[in-house]
Amino acid sequence: MFASISAELRLICVFLVFILACNVNGSDDYRALRKEAEAKLDRLENFLKKADEHGLETGCESVSVSVAKAFLEFAQWDYNNKEKLRDILSEWKKGPKNFDPAKKAEGLAEFELRETIKLLDEVWEKSKNKKDNLWNRRGMKEFNPAKAEIKDGWVKYKGRVVYPYGFNVLQDHWKHNNFETLATLYLDCMGTEKQGRNESIREKFAKGLNQLKSFGLMGDVLIGHHGVPEKAKESNPEIAGEFGHGVGYDIDHPLARGLWKKTLSKVVGITADSENIKLYDIMNEPSWLTAKTKWTDENVQLPSRYTIAGYRSWLKDIYKDISNLNSSWGKDFASFSEIQSFQRTPENKAAWYDWCRYNQIRCTDFFRFMHDEIKQHDPQAKCHVKFINHNVLIGSGGPWSIGKEGIIPARHKGLDREAVMEIMEVNGCDTRITDGGNMILPHPYSDPSEYALNWRAQSMCFDFMKSLQPDKLLYDSEWHSVQTIKYRNQRISPEHMKLSLWLAHMHGMGANITWYWGRKGVSARGGWQGSFYANITTQPRLLYSYLQNMLRLNSYADKVHLFSEQKRPVRILYSNASAIQDTVSCDAAIIAYESLYFSGLPIGFVTEKMLQENALSDCECLIAANTGYVEDETVAAVKKFIDRGGEVVNLGDDTFKFNKRGKKRSLKDYAFIKRCRSFDLKSPKKLAPAMVYLMKKWEISSEFNVEPSGNGSLWGVLCRSVQSDNKSYVLLMNLTKQAKGVSLKRKGKTPASAKEIIEGVKVNPENITLKSRDVLFMEIP
């Protein structure tokens, strides 16, 4: 027996020694990586200090030192807290089946150190080998965020355009060394009593404001709508519930506005005199889903009795008599009091339009109320609403629609972007431009495999926003270039971040908050459905690329912002009624946009309202992309545009066929559109040659374009140009996964010379090689 025990003890000892040896080896790996990172950090920091002493411009490179120091701390926490890290990573429930939180937690610290070493090596090589070029670069243009102002559609500091940037978390750990200039304060619900908290909402908000002041940052107040005060809920229980996405109460309840009046009067009052607070986000990702689709079956918010009462009143104002409504809807109601909301079927398009339109009007009215209340207490406030951006253009490929005739389009959520943009001082949004996952804004002919990133939603939606309100700041307060709830990639290339940022600012983004900063201090943050995994605080080269490119964009903001201000000679007709009634109109708009995107021409949009108000002064070509449901006034406006010499392209078979409620229009009233240049719906790549040919025929062109320098395809190469100070500035971007060889042309001729601006090096315009995701910013004399 004793011999047996002794043998067991020997086995246990051997096993423990083996485990200990493994841990020691693992620790040695970590220590070796850390030692290498620290040595290379010291080498680079000393080199940059000497370069700075000699007057060289090293601002962007110096940020790499800050990033490396941060990640040495991040990696230490991740190494010491693997069990906590595993639990946090386990919160991501939408990952692939083979996602192993324990394995990811075990290797994260070493991964971060290896990437930090790679970053330090890359910056060292570029700084050492290109030292002379540092003299040729424009210096960093820092600005005081608290002293900036929102004016003429941009954030300006001492009269020049600047691009504020930051992350979704306000904390004091990484505010130094250009980590951000813009931050968010959260006002979490209506009512200012303690509600069981240790401090009132007002006290908590005041503390956050003081923190913002101490950092010297520009502030954006994000107003949450998740709950109502317990006293109001006890006396009026029907006010509470899931009435919208992130909306825990009925906006139509008689008490709702009174509660917000009380809250805003107390909280906004303390921000009115603050130079830091510039922005108010009235609602986060609003939507009031009122119809069942493949995505929303269990998320539909049924209208309250107050909503239905308002709907009936609105219908009575529209139709005057119930017989008129019955004639339009094909019903036999005895009175308006019998009417409820409707699910869409092919035969009740009039009823469906009326419900969707009323839902938009009532929600817009609530946004207007919130805006006006804030302005009452802070007249200088700049308000916006953070809309999920691609929803405005989503067609048959979106999760809120199914894409078959008679099935619900994605316009039952109460959002009228055009109307809300007219009310707000700032155009707010939440945009996705990831490096993988499903293509956002797909269409029936999508081929996402040829692109290196999901560019379509960002480019289209930013052009949409800048077309409708060019003189208002475009502010993306939840910019998803790294991750979404569903999509993650732990190894995103720095080139993806660079391309995404330059593409965004070329299209008019004026400020951004990037999602997601996954740390509280140095420790990992849980929550947000496991958003810590693959966030930007686990990818040092990605974080450096973000900060470096934001600094560079700020250095050249005086030129870059001009790209989104230029004339848009080609515009696509956007019809809210068509988007309500079917999915094909948005599919067609996406196809039309993509077919011309790589032609060198800036593309715009025009709404029915704008068209009727004759807002086409800079438009030479109008594309009617299967807009099947439009008002009579729109048809007349298009006729007038043609009569005064405008060109029209008709895409699809259903353009102008119905009025907004689905009543078929007489063919003679819209036959003229069939006589315009017309095309069937097809892939953008196949449509592009005919569209480009028409632009040349109609002499609609840009100053610069590119031609292939070999036998390769130009598809996926973006070329845009602007003029400033008697010089031309050209942006070339390769959005594909393959390298492209191009030759730059100015009106058909090769420019004599060109210079890449950022590094100050000469470029041969006759033979330019663009790697996948390359960005080339050039100055042409």
From TrEMBL:
One of its GO terms (biological process) is carbohydrate metabolic process. GO terms for molecular function: beta-galactosidase activity. SUPFAM superfamilies: (Trans)glycosidases (SSF51445). Transmembrane segments: none annotated. InterPro entries: Class_I_gatase-like, GH, Glyco_hydro_42_N. Residues 251-518 form the Glycoside hydrolase family 42 N-terminal domain. The keyword Coiled coil applies. Residues 27-54 form a coiled coil. GO terms for cellular component: beta-galactosidase complex. Keywords: Coiled coil, Glycosidase, Hydrolase. This is Beta-galactosidase.
